[in-house]
Design goal:
Length: about 130
């Protein structure tokens, strides 16, 4: 496996909740699987989306993520979100859960922020 940039792998991550805060939507990852320096780590992460429009299936949290896709003016991110990440302009985020439920969120602007302590999980460099 190539040495991936500092990023969240949506697959293998867990979302503890999605809530509205004022004119924003906050997605909280209790465990985000983070790639850093050829290693796998766990860290809490928050995604804030401004001017959100939420759609899709109902989900009971916490919920394990199966995959996802973020589309921004800078381009698409398939299953990997750079850390940190901040973008203005239109965004579309689709998250698929292990349960089969899919959540779709559109908005204007997005910030992905790591929170708390990062914890080592495993070596991933060289694994296939």
């Amino acid at each position: 496996m190539p040495n991936l940039p500092h990023s969240i792998e949506l697959h293998d991550s867990t979302i503890s909740g999605i809530e509205t805060r004022g004119n924003s939507l906050l997605i909280t990852f209790s465990h985000a699987y983070v790639h850093l320096d050829g290693k796998g780590w766990s860290q809490q992460v928050e995604i804030q989306i401004d001017e959100p429009c939420l759609g899709g299936d109902p989900v009971s949290y916490p919920a394990q993520v199966a995959g996802g896709r973020l589309v921004t003016v800078e381009g698409p991110y398939d299953n990997l979100l750079m850390l940190p990440l901040s973008t203005k302009g239109p965004i579309q985020l689709e998250i698929e859960f292990v349960s089969g439920a899919v959540v779709r969120i559109s908005g204007r602007g997005l910030v992905v922020s790591p929170k708390g302590v990062i914890t080592f999980l495993e070596e991933v460099a060289g694994k296939l």
